[in-house]
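[audit] Reproducing an earlier prediction to check determinism. Same input, same settings, fresh worker. If the tokens differ from the archived copy the diff job will pick it up downstream; this log only records the rerun itself.
[audit] input (303 residues):
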Amino acid sequence: MLRGTLLYLANRESIRHFVTHNRLARRSSRRFVAGETLEEALQATRTLNQQGCTVSLDHLGENVTDASEAASAASDYIKILDAIKQSSLDANISIKLTALGLDVGGDLCEENVRRVLDRARSYNIFVRVDMEGSAYTERTLELVAKLRQDYDGVGTVIQSYLYRSEKDIESLVASHTRVRLVKGAYKEPAEVAYPRKADVDRSYEQLMRVLLSHGTYPAIATHDVHMIEEARAFATANTIEKSRFEFQMLYGIRRDLQQQLVREGYNMRVYVPYGTQWYPYLTRRLAERPANLIFIASNTFRK
């Protein structure tokens, strides 16, 4: 129930306005968001690199409805790529298609994505196309498949709570497309997604084994200790080398576990979001792990 409430609040403009203009809430959000500027995100990346972690940078923003905004978002992603190259950081980027104009038009979106991928290819930097709500899943996968014909360095994300994910994984594995596996953070109807956590977890474990066995450098994205142990045990039992996959976690969550995995020789990538449009991202993270709400609330309403 709490998860549903938090996901509902992610789309409430009045709540968004209060939180994003509350000084203490903004300060508290820095636990999970690297900052509002690219330089702040780059500094967070430098620190993580020094700690042995690679990074995926994400400039927050989604669902633009204007072509000029979409073009601006593409330019922002290109600036991130330039900064990664110029600073010699060990990082790639994650992009959202609705930030690049998918709601405006498919051709416009593709044009913007190709602008980003052209620059990324010139630097040999990988680009991950994030997965959004289920209404965008088919279009996202269709575009990624089309882009893969021209670009090697592009991959996507699969959410284990969707019923369709098993077949999607099969297609992506067959095309050697890199996949980040997540459980899913959007509120979805029971017609398209497992409503029970146990079923989502079971699906995640099944898909994780497929990716570890047959995938192209898959990213096992989870903070669930049980899932991490399952991945480690499966890899060991099947002589899958640590270099063939990576774990991914979100900025500010389970830093202790991130460092433990680094010490044990696993590839560890941290997803580092930044930007002024942090409220929807933050509420989805709280919905995934409601215990984080205590941290935010205690700092937001502290006297």
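[audit] rerun output stored. Observation attached for the diff report: The longest strand covers residues 268-274.
[audit] end
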